[in-house]
Amino acid sequence: GHFTDPVVVCDFTALYPSLVIAYNLCYSTCAGKLDYHSTRREMQMEGKTREKVGPFFYSERRTATVLNDHFKSLSNISHEQQRANFGRDRAYIAPTGTIYVSESVLKGVLPQVLDEMLTTRAMLKKAAKEYKKNVKDLSPAILRQLEARQLALKYVANVTYGYTSATFSGRCAMPLLADAIVECGRRTLQRAMHLANQWGQGTDPWGKKDRSWLGAEVIYGDTDSLFIKMPGRTHKQAFEFGEKFCQAVTSLNPPPVQLKLEKVYVGSIMQTMKRYCGMKYDSKDQKKPNFEAKGLETIRRDQCALTQKVLKNALITLFKHGIQAVKEFLFRQWSLIFAGDLPVSDFILTGRVRSKYRGGKEGPVQAVLARRLAEADPGRIVRHKQRLSYVIVATPGVTFRLKDCVLTPLELLARWDAYKIHSRYYIEKHVNAALQRCLGLAPHFVTVADWFGACPKPRRRTHFWPIKSKRAMITAYFGNDFCSLCQRKCQADGSRSVVACTSCQKDIVSSVQSASAKMNKIEIEANAIAKKCSKCSGCFESSDTFAVAIQQEQKPTTNSNSRAFIRQKNNESLLMPLANCVCIDCPATYLRHRLREQSIEAKGTYDLLTGDDDMAW
After folding, report:
1. What's the Enzyme Commission number for this chain (predicted)?
2. Are residues 509 and 424 in the same domain?
3. Is residue 553 part of a domain?
4. Phi, psi angle pair for 400, to nearest 5°
5. Does residue 132 form part of some domain?
């Protein structure tokens, strides 16, 4: 749901490696598994073990007498005496019933290795802080090197648990050890959650009444993190609670198990496990919060930039201004999508392609596209699990097959006169689906589809692009019914793609000046982008080389009103680029295409107002 109260996020530092070190869990320290291990009272009476696990093969049975000698805490009924004698135990019984000897008997290999890793990582992080503080003109390469080293140690330490549980692909699998590590982590997290709820009910860890943090409640806990809601508190009070709570939890666990205050969310959404977002404060002194998301579509690679931007801005608007402001924001975004005012780069999707699919099926749309590209160009190989970029375009008719609507981004730019973005598909299948998963939660319970049904949907009737293909869509021959200067609704003039309303035609001087200024502005922007492209490709680029395809051979015609004559006249002055850029990751590729279309519209408007209406196609 959506929480407006501060939420304290606490995280155990390297939980699994710390538990291995704290309880001496290792292959070499495992001494077997108890038959009866449900309660400590049963262990006092029935102490035998089963299975020969680990390097310890005692001649005697592990009776209650033997266990009492190894576990001093078992012989005391008092909880306080048990805790005092816990350090004197010569072995540790994991929650799963597996016995591990203590460090006084044998220091395990895994604890030694992990201890060295964590100690070295702490030294590297401390060195980086000291360098930043004391060294002037420090090279960023040194900090990057230290950061890379500490991250490498962190990753290796955290995946050590995976070595113990990898039964299929691993070589050091030991389910007893893996289960013990997981169960110890689970019990540690549950104790921390119970303590937080105790504080929220007005009781401290020692059973005394303390109403300082009344109302605190754990709303989410997973693996090594806790989310604690603090009703009616400020973010500074939440930080104060988090610091005291982390100190209390750390003191109740053996070293080096440590709970650390990570951040505080002021306004957050908990969607499902490992999927949440909020406005984050990293410290008490931070003035403005930052948006952070985990597992949502705003950071996922399988979503287009349109979904990421709309969802992120909608959530920020929700946290800052409320649900009504979100509705107004979405109405504006949906209108922009239908009007075609967003760049093509926002609609690019990516998907993995496999070499073959089960049952001989065609697979998803990216697989169909990869097969079509391979048939057109046998030299183009799409590797197994390679990510392929594609866009979904609109097709005639109400019903359509998605695999018939998929093109590469470069194919769409090259055939801009024949295709347009499938706006409704992107909105309903991607944008609205992601919004519904967030806004449909308590307390709002919004139905995004109802909002979308009430939203105005302006449609762009034409592209300002020369028609080069006989297979162009019929809408390419429709005249424009929006004024190119003031964007007001007006009467279409035949099949002209540019038109001026009556009020703009009356004030012809101001309209011509406005059209001329727009042309100059677009040309300046285009030449600036062309300079960057020239440095990158090493070839001459200018605004005239933007989005120019190979000219088709056409016979000249004497009819100056025909579209063929207009295309021939326009193409006479176009300069062909020496190198055609095919980089779909560069923003300049789509910016050039957009500037080219704006240039055609501005030139057509200027010619219409000045009387040279040959460009009004």
Report:
1. 2.7.7.7
2. no
3. no
4. -155, 155
5. yes
For CA atoms 50, 53, 54, 59, give the dihedral sign.
Answer: positive
Does 256 sit behind a cis peptide bond, omega within 30 degrees of 0 on the bond before it? Answer: yes
Taking the C-alpha atoms of residue 131 and residue 135, their distance in angstroms, rounded to an integer, is: 5
Is 304 among the domain residues?
A: no
Whether residues 87 and 144 share a domain: the answer is no
| CA nearest neighbour of 581 among 468, 375, 413 | 413
- Rounded-to-integer distance, Cα 309 and Cα 333, Å: 10
**Residues 386 and 249 grouped into a single domain:** no
What backbone torsions phi and psi does residue 569 show, to the nearest 5 degrees? -65, -40
Alpha helices (H) in 322-445, listed in sequence order: 323-339, 365-376, 409-414, 423-426, 432-439
Q: What angle do CA 27, 29, 34 make, to 5 degrees?
A: 100
Confidence of residue 560 (pLDDT cuts 50, 70, 90): very low
Is 337 found in the same domain as 430? yes
- In angstroms, the CA 405 to CA 403 distance is 5
In angstroms, rounded to a whole number, what is the distance separating the alpha carbons of residues 318 and 323?
A: 5
Query: What's the domain range around 487?
Result: 474-547+579-610
Say which DSSP state 135 is in. Answer: -
- In this prediction, residue 565 has a pLDDT band, given cuts at 50, 70 and 90, of very low
Say if 313 falls within a structural domain.
Answer: no
Q: Is the domain of 284 the same as that of 135?
A: yes
Q: Indicate if 101 and 111 belong to the same structural domain.
A: no
Tell me the three state secondary structure of residue 254. Answer: coil
Spatial separation of the C-alpha atoms in residues 114 and 134, rounded to whole Å: 30
Residues 119 and 177 in one domain: yes
What's the predicted TM-score (pTM) here? 0.81
CA distances from 605 to 424, 492, 608, 613 (A): 30, 14, 5, 9
292, 277 contact by CB (below 8 A): yes
**Considering Cα of 237, then 238, then 242, then 248, what sign does the dihedral take?**
positive
Q: Tens digits of per-residue pLDDT, 487-531? A: 888 887 777 778 888 888 888 889 999 999 999 999 899 889 888
Domain boundary among 70, 105, 140: 105
Instruction: Give dist(CA 121, CA 380) in Å, integer.
Output: 45
Number of domains in the chain: 4
pLDDT of 224 > 70? The answer is yes
